[in-house]
Design brief:
Pfam families: Cu_bind_like (PF02298). GO terms for molecular function: electron transfer activity; metal ion binding. This is Plantacyanin. Keywords: Copper, Disulfide bond, Metal-binding, Signal. By secondary structure, this protein is α+β, with helices and mostly antiparallel strands. It has helices at about 5-30, 75-80, and strands at about 35, 60-65, 75, 95-100, 105-110, 120-125. The strands form 2 sheets. It has a 3-stranded mixed beta sheet with strand order 1-2-4, with no helix packed on it.
Length: about 130
């Protein structure tokens, strides 16, 4: 079947509709935001908080805590397990820190002496 003069316009309309649909789908897959520790926030014994949750790349972890007595640092698996944070490791300390996640394993600890050992740490797997 031969295409008439309007077929180019119809093709462009189909492409615009497809682009709109993809945009709407992308908006519906918006990143999730999680407050670490839920209502209690970033505190002692929060280590099990991530269990049973599914985290995706682009999701945001929000750490809420008293910045005068706590902080949060992203560390490697060894530092997470041992609660020994490398010297000079930069920690966040605003009391309202947000971290956007990428695919892989992420480990966070409070660097204040004794706090990590009191399970103020989390391990998060991101798909």
């Amino acid at each position: 079947m031969a295409l008439g003069r309007g077929s180019a316009r119809n093709g462009a309309a189909v492409l615009r509709a497809a682009a709109l649909l993809l945009g709407l789908l992308a908006m519906s897959a918006e990143a999730a935001k999680y407050t670490v520790g839920d209502y209690g926030g970033w505190k002692f014994n929060v280590a099990g908080w991530a269990k049973g949750r599914t985290f995706r790349a682009g999701d945001v972890l929000e750490f809420k805590y008293n910045g005068a007595v706590h902080d949060v640092a992203a560390v490697d698996a060894a530092a997470y397990q041992s609660c020994v944070v490398p010297k000079g490791k930069r920690a966040l300390s605003s009391g309202h820190d947000k971290v956007r996640l990428v695919k892989g394993m992420h480990y966070f600890v409070c660097t204040v002496r004794g706090h990590c050992k009191a399970n103020m740490k989390i391990a998060v797997r991101v798909i």
